[in-house]
From TrEMBL:
<dbReference type="InterPro" id="IPR036416">
    <property type="entry name" value="Pept_tRNA_hydro_sf"/>
</dbReference>
<comment type="function">
    <text>Hydrolyzes ribosome-free peptidyl-tRNAs (with 1 or more amino acids incorporated), which drop off the ribosome during protein synthesis, or as a result of ribosome stalling.</text>
</comment>
<dbReference type="GO" id="GO:0005737">
    <property type="term" value="C:cytoplasm"/>
</dbReference>
<comment type="subunit">
    <text>Monomer.</text>
</comment>
<feature type="binding site">
    <location>
        <position position="114"/>
    </location>
    <ligand>
        <name>tRNA</name>
    </ligand>
</feature>
<feature type="binding site">
    <location>
        <position position="66"/>
    </location>
    <ligand>
        <name>tRNA</name>
    </ligand>
</feature>
<dbReference type="GO" id="GO:0000049">
    <property type="term" value="F:tRNA binding"/>
</dbReference>
<feature type="binding site">
    <location>
        <position position="68"/>
    </location>
    <ligand>
        <name>tRNA</name>
    </ligand>
</feature>
<dbReference type="InterPro" id="IPR001328">
    <property type="entry name" value="Pept_tRNA_hydro"/>
</dbReference>
<keyword id="KW-0820">tRNA-binding</keyword>
<comment type="function">
    <text>Catalyzes the release of premature peptidyl moieties from peptidyl-tRNA molecules trapped in stalled 50S ribosomal subunits, and thus maintains levels of free tRNAs and 50S ribosomes.</text>
</comment>
<keyword id="KW-0378">Hydrolase</keyword>
<comment type="similarity">
    <text>Belongs to the PTH family.</text>
</comment>
<dbReference type="GO" id="GO:0072344">
    <property type="term" value="P:rescue of stalled ribosome"/>
</dbReference>
<keyword id="KW-0694">RNA-binding</keyword>
<feature type="active site" description="Proton acceptor">
    <location>
        <position position="21"/>
    </location>
</feature>
<keyword id="KW-0963">Cytoplasm</keyword>
Amino acid sequence: MDLWLVVGLGNPGPSYAKNRHNAGFMVLDVLAERAGGRFRSHRARADVLEGRLAGARVVLAKPRSFMNLSGGPVKGLCDFYKVPAERLIVVHDELDVPFGAVRLKRGGGDGGHNGLRSVTKSLGTRDYLRVRFGVGRPPGRMDPAAFVLKDFSAAERKDLDLEVERAADAVEALISKGLAAAQNTFHAD
């Protein structure tokens, strides 16, 4: 099977659109442009686009549930498209990675990320690929949950489009070159 499922995590609705927590959605929007298609509603409570990226068939998806309930739509899509966990790529914001850095891995814990916790619980496995978009740590004693629900700062917004493009490049590298080669490219910073 050559089909990949690429899911961006975020919260639905315009009030969340520019939040740090919606980095996954931002990356998926760039990938949709590259694939030359538009998202459409899917019965698995997600917006999907079927197309090609990096020479492979892909389904790009943005769950319509809130972040903490992402697992249901992701599981529904995996079942509908018959995509095993090892061909699932989840793109998400990451507090433990500095802003602008992209980190790739397979499996691991959720690091307190409720979207990942929901996906792992629904799938019954942690063995899926992750593209971790660095949003950095909150300043001072700010609650991390409040930090990720804030928009990127003015300074971050200057580089945000470039960093989102880099994360989209990382997704394509994962698909075309595999995890080790993609890590060698994107972990160099």
